[in-house]
């Protein structure tokens, strides 16, 4: 990381950390207020209090997501052999409640096992969410080998996305779908990008509205950071 | 006897809201023990040693439990741990670190300096009440320290 990026990262970490205390106080006092005074409020009063509490908790989740991204940026990545086939199969069992994920035999790679596992977990969880209203949901994981890198792909036949927004897909808190279609903060793909970048790789996605999506990431062969 | 004379719980916390919510959580959990809130490590050591603003205080009665924040101005939680565990008189006071940090190095450093427990403050108030009650129940009602 260069000097300016490192400084920005330190700032993000410091600000995020310091913001937690006042937000925690809002959440705490909203709960105390609810317990001690909600009987004296009418329905509208209770509804407004619930909004304060919910939005404060959402703010805390966003702060934690920023801290998480910042930690990944500062994390010293291990460089260990990775049996990708076993890793993906294990993650698929955790993420998908039914066996809807087909995993091809994948080339091994190297990198930080905990971080790369998070990449798979986030990509597969996204695919599961994207296909949840699809009667015949299909998710497939495969890989292609190039001269200097291995490219791993997660494809699904879910709700897809409009390619005009593809640049925003991997940015933190940017979402291409409404919460009812795709719940969450919109930080999962930013985490994927941060981790893959830390491994000297690249991420990208292709999709069409209501016609599935494929998320790909490339790891250099003989990665060493 | 007031909390100033001899609290059962010494709460060392620089954030006023956190201190207030922790005290409320104790009361909600049914712990009516005397709690004294001090705002940083300097004030905590002054209280325990009877120095500074607490000059002349009867220091014979020690708290049964110290709840200790880590990141504080002037003297932080690590400094407090170091000082209390180095002093024969205060060494056996149970110290539970109560912090918003869940960083591995903070946990490791706290235990290296002799902390008796390390708890990350839950954000949810109901969970905070449950957690604080469990800590207080163990250290005040179940645990024994040298007389």
Can you tell me about this structure?
The complex is a heterodimer of chains A (225) and B (147). Chain A is of the alpha+beta class and 225 residues long. Chain A is 50% helix and 17% strand. Chain A is built from six helices and seven strands. A five-stranded mixed beta sheet of chain A has the order 2-4-5-7-6, with helices on one face. Chain A has a two-stranded antiparallel ribbon with strand order 1-3. In chain A, helix 3 packs across helix 4 and helix 4 runs antiparallel to helix 6. Helix content of chain B is 40%, strand content 14%. Chains A and B meet through helix 1 of A and helix 1 and helix 5 of B.
Task: Please specify the SSE layout and strand pairing.
The complex is a heterodimer of chains A (225) and B (147).
Chain A: H1 3-37, H2 43-74, E1 80-82, H3 84-95, E2 101-103, E3 109-111, H4 113-130, E4 139-145, E5 149-156, H5 166-169, H6 188-198, E6 202-207, E7 213-220
Parallel strand pairs in A: 2-4
Antiparallel strand pairs in A: 1-3, 4-5, 5-7, 6-7
Helix pairs in contact in A: 1-2, 2-6, 3-4, 4-6
Chain B: E1 9-12, H1 16-28, E2 35-38, H2 41-49, E3 65-68, H3 77-86, E4 95-99, H4 104-112, E5 117-120, H5 125-142
Parallel strand pairs in B: 1-2, 1-3, 3-4, 4-5
Helix/strand order of chain A: HHEHEEHEEHHEE
CATH class of the largest domain in chain A: Alpha Beta
Radius of gyration of chain B: 14 Å
The fraction of residues assigned to DSSP E strands of chain B is 5-15%
Helicity of chain A, in percent? Answer: 40-55%
The total tally of domains of chain A equals 2
**Strand order in the sheet with the most strands of chain B:** 2-1-3-4-5
What would you report as the Rg of chain A, rounded to the nearest angstrom? 20 Å
Care to give the gist of this entry?
The complex is a heterodimer of chains A (225) and B (147). Chain A has 225 residues and is an alpha+beta fold.
Task: Write a concise keyword list for the protein shown above.
A: Heat Shock Protein 90; 6 helices; about 50% helix; B: about 150 residues; alpha/beta; about 15% strand
